[in-house]
Specification:
7-stranded mixed beta sheet, 9 strands, single chain, 2 domains, about 40% helix, about 290 residues, alpha/beta
Amino acid sequence: MQENTVHLSREETDFFISLLTVGTGIIPRSSHRAGIQTYIEKKLAEKHISVSDYKIKLLSDKDLFMEFVNESTVNETYFFREEKQFAILRDRYFPMWRAMFPAMPIKIWSAACSSGEEVYSLALLAKSCGIKPVITASDINSKVLEHCKTGIFKDSSIRSVDGFSFKSLLLPYQCEDGKIKFNDEIKSCIQTREINLSKISEPGFGADLPKGQNIIFIRNVFIYFNQELRAKILSVIAEHCLADGGIIFVSMSEIAQFDSSVVPPSLEKVMDGSVFYFRKKTSEVKSNV
């Protein structure tokens, strides 16, 4: 039997990319775009669906559109990625929290958690510093959230350079086959939530957002948004999700994209060695600005 092949035209690919952008705010880079096109072509060939039929189904079938989003979003991560940021928490922020609030859990939100390595890295680090974490793990991709819940990861989630200095925290959970399997005690610190950051300022959406967070990680996601959406997301998070004195980490490769047109007045940019992050001003400080 001759294999059914499909080749999307540039205009057809543009249509599907526009659907993704409207639905998620994501503006794919060229390499990402090529992967999305390949996925759609393979999907159409396997299911023997015409381009026009697939367009109609995506617009009318919520589950199919969610599948499209899941397959079109990039989810590559690993434990203790950008380890200098975790070192700041270990050496500065967590000891300060333990001294000031010895019996109080710390609230942490991983706002683009992907498959969960970042979330479990935060849970392990907090516990190693004698702090009880309450962590919200959110992503637009429902499939990676399901993986996050399992608490099981391949050894490829451990890198030999970046993050390796924290490997000792993972060793108690590493099995003979190399996989990392977290126990119920660690998993109980984490709750998952499906959140589409591009819809964050829409009426009624705020009820889904975690409030009073002491630390927010929102890394490697702003690169896919335009400047207007970056500003909107950061403003809502700062005003409605972050506690006074709380801090926000973005990827170290993204920090240059955050100028005065993006950063709201309630946040100040902090430099600690080679690491930058944002801290929410207290109410007293904001009133005097």
